[in-house]
Each structure stands twice: as structure tokens, then as C-alpha cells.
Amino acid sequence: MVAAAIMVLALAAATPALARPLALRGGFWPEPRPRPPRLAIPLPRPRPAEASVKEDHSSDDKPAAEQGAPAPSPPSACRLALTEAIAIAPSIPAISGPGGCGGDDLVRLEAVVLADKRQVAVKPAAILRCTMAAAVADWIRSDMAPFAQNLGTTLSDLENFDSFECRGRNRVSGAKLSEHGRANAIDIRALKFANGQSLSLTDRSAAPEQRETVLHSVCARFTTVLGPGSDWYHEDHIHLDLAERRGGYRICQWNVYDSMPAVAPLLPAARPEEAPPREVAAKPAVAAKPAAARPDAAEPKAEAPVPGPKRRPTKKRRRAGAF
Ligand SMILES: [Zn+2]
Fold it and tell me: Rounded mean pLDDT of 267-288?
């Protein structure tokens, strides 16, 4: 009997699959306890992304007010150089916009101060990186002030069409971030003078040689210059920026168009009465003339070019990658 019981136990231990039916039938095997229902164990919330960036826990004990504000960075070399003797350009807080928009070391360029202390107002004031504001100030002081002086006047205003704006190039959404989005560009339309005159940079009726002077000046100073003829986004203003490109590559695309003709379209002058008959392709009337009267009649003669209306320059739609 004992041996039989041992056998049963040994069988049950060797084959667990048999154990339960035996136990159920036999009644001596303990009933398996019903399992408690599975409860959802609350898990700790995932650590926020910004928390993982901060590895330094040394400041955890400090009050919240002390943790929030980072220490102000010392003024940049540009900021130190752009004094009120050069420009009225107060610093403004850094901008951190979507998609990399904004930047730090920003200023609001309100006016450029000339050597004689006169101010050239930037209207409206332009939000620019300090380096771009300094480049604009240097351009006005070194090139445009003497240019105005040569015209017998002084510069009074710089007409700002656009400066910082968080947008893609040419206002195309999804396009690469414009230099305007980095506060590294300004669009200008005109220079205004103290004598009440102004030079509208894209106006065909404005003196072309004056516009060319401005063209040569800006293309020597800025790494991107886009105006009429670059693409059809820049027909009414000049874009200037300081984009840095590989190999120091620069873009200078601004066609200074000649003034519009006074009478348009330009037609050829009327043919005078006494003019000899036009030599045209052989017609019966011409062929009837005696050959002796026209020794060169046997040879085909190139037809004189007939003056036609002046062709306007073809507008090239280059992909300037603008701006
Ligand atoms: Zn622009």
C-alpha cells in the first residue's frame, strides 16, 4: 500500500500534467487558488524630455526663482563696438522662434549716426543681428553719406521694407529659413535726402548712374544682394544679407534697368521721300530693270537691317535661392 502511494506521488511529480486530474479526482490534492484579477499597477509618469537635458542636479536645492534665469552673457565684441557714436541701436532680448527663427545679440536699429552727428533714420526701425546692423551702419556712414554729399545734400532716411521676420525664403511656407528669419537681412526701397528728394532704388525713372553707384557699394559689402532681374520677388526692393556660404560665395543679382523711353514703343523714323527705293527680294518690277544700270544686280545683296523696336532685356528666372 505504501509502495502504491509512493508510486502515485512519484507519477504526480514526474508528470505535472497528470497531477491536476488526479488531485481533482482524488480530492487530496489542494485546489489551486483562484488567481486574483490582474490590477493595472500605476507606473510612474515618463520623465519629461526637457528634464533629461538637465544633468546638473546641483541647483535642485535652490529656490525656483533662482533656477529660471540664466546668467546674462557678456556683451559681444559687436555690441561693444556699435556705440551711440555709430548707431542708435538698443539691444533687445534674444528671440527663439519655431524652426530656428530668431537669434541672440539682436538690436533695434533706429538710426545711423554720421560723422557730423547727423542721424539717418531707419524707417521703420529694423530688428537685426548686431553684426548685420553694424554692416548697415558702416555702409551708410562710409559709402552712402559721401554719395549724398556728391549730390549736394545729406542723407536723412533709409526706407526699410522688411527686416526680422520668421518665415521661409520668399515667403514660401516650408522653404528653407530666410535670412530674414535669422535677423540677418534687410530689404530696402529708397534713400531719402535732406533736400526732400529721394532715390527709389528699383524705379526705372530714377537716375541709372545713381542706382549703379548703390549697386556697386552694396555688392562689395553684403554677401547677398537681390534686386530687379534676380527673380520676381525682388522687383520692388533690394534685399541685403550677410549669409555665409562655402568658399565665400557671394550673390550680386540686381539689374539696373535703363530709364523707360519717353515715347513707347520706340518706332523707326518715317522714311524720307527722297530715299532710294528699298532693295528687297526680287519682285517682277525690280527684275525688269536693265542689268547695266545695276552692275551689282547679279550678286545677291544683304538686306540692310531694318531698325525695329528696342528689345527689352529678357527677364531670367534664375533660382537665386532667395530670401
Ligand atoms: Zn529680403
Answer: 68
pLDDT of residue 11: 40
Q: Which of 104, 235, 94 is nearest to 161 (CA)?
A: 235
**From ligand 1's centre to the CA of 240, what distance in Å?**
7
From the CA of 218, how far away is ligand 1's center (Å)? Answer: 14
Question: How remote is the CA of residue 301 from the centroid of ligand 1, in Å?
Answer: 54
- What's the grid cell of residue 159? 526706407
Cα of 189 from ligand 1 centre, angstroms? 11
Report how far apart, in Å, the C-alpha atoms of 17 and of each of 10, 33, 35 are.
13, 17, 19
Report CA(202)–ligand 1 centroid distance (Å). Answer: 14
Q: Which of 199, 310, 313 is nearest to 263 (CA)?
A: 310
Q: pLDDT digit string (tens) for 203-215?
A: 999 999 999 999 9
Q: Report the distance separating Cα 103 and Cα 93, nearest Å.
A: 9
**pTM of the predicted structure, to 2 decimals:** 0.62
pLDDT tens digits, one per residue of 18-61: 333 333 343 334 444 555 445 454 555 655 554 444 344 444 44
| Burial annotation 188-224 (CB, 10 A radius, 16+ → b, else e) | bbbbbbeeeebbbbbbeebeeebbebbbebbbebbbb
